[in-house]
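Regression test case RT-17, inverse folding.

Input:
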């Protein structure tokens, strides 16, 4: 790093030509130690480029700070994906052409680079992703449409190993906590007045899978429109986010209005893994119903989606569960 016996070096960090950050300047030092770390989260388009084999570049541009204009001292350029294991290594300062290169560059730069790849579930019905358990959160947010109140409801319906609906393990607007508080519902929101960007969602379900009763084989997340005369297509602002809170990783987002003029949407099933003693499988359903206003009218469908985990499940196409709402009514002949 010497240009006449002394330097005031610092490093600029670039990803694919865009500046990400820089270190502080170490004055009058030929052997600087910055101990600076940078964290970079790739956007989907950038990650897709890497998956397709089009590597992006990391650049570490070393400069000598000067009052009349900083002088380039050389560059270390590395491609992504970075195929070497995470370790600290010395990289030779490269020589090259251009304003940020130095023809007489000498020296080495000590770097440690870690690349972490996370598998993202494709939002295609039937696709499944193993999850270890932990804390899963479902957020529902929407805004009022043209000043009219519209009521959306999220429910988490529990199914046993014999295919029975476990109402004491099911949470919805009428029963906010299951038997041991491992599944919790925030309560019914009837106006859609929250912040749909996530800071103040209208309804939320928290699931602590490690503590869910062993009686439960599967949990179904269902979204319904309870407002008469309205369908999911009428609520264009609505969004459902599902997040692994342990890693703060998104498991998926749903835009309910995209399914059209339906009143119910089966979001996902979270079922106990069949291949290991612990662990769960997160499976996209993405199917709809055109008339149901609550999960109680969808019992045959719920059991139908359980055939692979309860092979001999009995399904009665007329089975219903009456879901009572304050101020609401039900017709006994329907049950």
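Golden output:
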């Amino acid at each position: 790093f010497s240009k006449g016996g002394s330097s005031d070096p610092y490093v600029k960090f670039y990803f694919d030509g865009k500046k990400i950050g820089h270190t502080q300047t170490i004055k009058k030092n030929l052997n600087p130690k910055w101990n600076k770390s940078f964290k970079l989260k790739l956007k989907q388009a950038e990650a897709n480029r890497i998956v397709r084999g089009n590597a992006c570049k990391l650049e570490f541009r070393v400069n000598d700070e000067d009052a009349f204009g900083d002088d380039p001292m050389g560059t270390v350029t590395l491609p992504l994906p970075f195929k070497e294991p995470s370790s600290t290594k010395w990289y030779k300062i490269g020589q090259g052409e251009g304003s940020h290169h130095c023809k007489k560059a000498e020296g080495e730069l000590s770097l440690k680079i870690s690349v972490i790849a996370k598998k993202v579930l494709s939002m295609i019905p039937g696709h499944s992703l193993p999850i270890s358990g932990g804390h899963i959160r479902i957020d529902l947010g929407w805004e009022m449409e043209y000043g009219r109140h519209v009521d959306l409801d999220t429910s988490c319906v529990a199914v046993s190993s014999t295919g029975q609906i476990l109402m004491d393990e099911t949470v919805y607007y009428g029963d906010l906590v299951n038997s041991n508080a491992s599944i919790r519902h925030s309560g019914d929101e009837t106006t859609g007045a929250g912040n749909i960007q996530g800071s103040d969602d209208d309804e939320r379900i928290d699931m602590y899978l490690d503590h869910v009763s062993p009686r439960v084989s599967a949990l179904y997340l269902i979204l319904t429109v309870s407002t008469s005369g309205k369908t999911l297509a009428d609520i264009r602002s609505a969004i459902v986010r599902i997040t692994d809170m342990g890693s703060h990783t998104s498991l998926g987002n749903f835009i309910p209005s995209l399914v059209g003029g339906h009143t119910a949407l089966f979001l996902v099933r979270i079922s106990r893994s069949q291949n290991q003693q612990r662990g769960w499988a997160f499976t996209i359903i993405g199917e709809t119903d055109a008339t149901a206003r609550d999960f109680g009218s969808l019992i045959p469908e719920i059991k139908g989606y359980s055939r692979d985990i309860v092979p001999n499940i009995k399904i009665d196409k007329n089975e219903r569960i009456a879901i009572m709402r304050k101020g609401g009514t039900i017709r006994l002949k329907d049950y």
